[in-house]
Amino acid sequence: MPFDPESLVFNDQGLIPAIAQEAETGEVLMMAWMNAEAVARTLQEGRVVYWSRSRQAFWRKGDTSGHVQTLVEMRVDCDRDCLLLQVRQTGAACHTGRRNCFYTALRDGEEVEIAGPM
Amino acid sequence: MPFDPESLVFNDQGLIPAIAQEAETGEVLMMAWMNAEAVARTLQEGRVVYWSRSRQAFWRKGDTSGHVQTLVEMRVDCDRDCLLLQVRQTGAACHTGRRNCFYTALRDGEEVEIAGPM
């Protein structure tokens, strides 16, 4: 059936979580949020556009940093309340300059940094 | 430094999103929610425990279905408001009987089912 972004399940702020995964390697890069229009723009442009909760504005990933996410495929989960974005990431996905945001592991009750800036 | 679950950033319902990823293959299985105690129990037991928003109760994955998630490693993102769980999944992660929850892809404006029940 034709896809309508409004058919997704959004939270009370009108947002849905979107997980970005590197399409080639399966690396989970980051998680951010989208509203219905961000979903529509992402599909239209083939470039990932989030909604920034802190800035309350569209966040076209890479516009400032150059670290663009090119959409390979968008997937919807069984409850329609979470998105999985298969992407090709240019440069670092994380604002700290790391390839992905999940660089802190919990090992033996301690926080361990497992990746540095690229 | 020693890890304290309370140091994570929870939403106004006291919850944090947790992405479960198959440790061996990188497959993203599902996304669900945890409160601080679910995080602590998961680390303690080495078995994933979520917080069910619909049932408002702890959800020890696999207790009813047998589809247990064994924790390989928990990771925290840069903003401390999202978790990545590296797991070993027994059977289907999705309640529909599919290996993962993201079995609906958006292709050429249509929803396409890309995986069936195991």
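Chain A touches chain B through 37 residues (CB under 8 Å).
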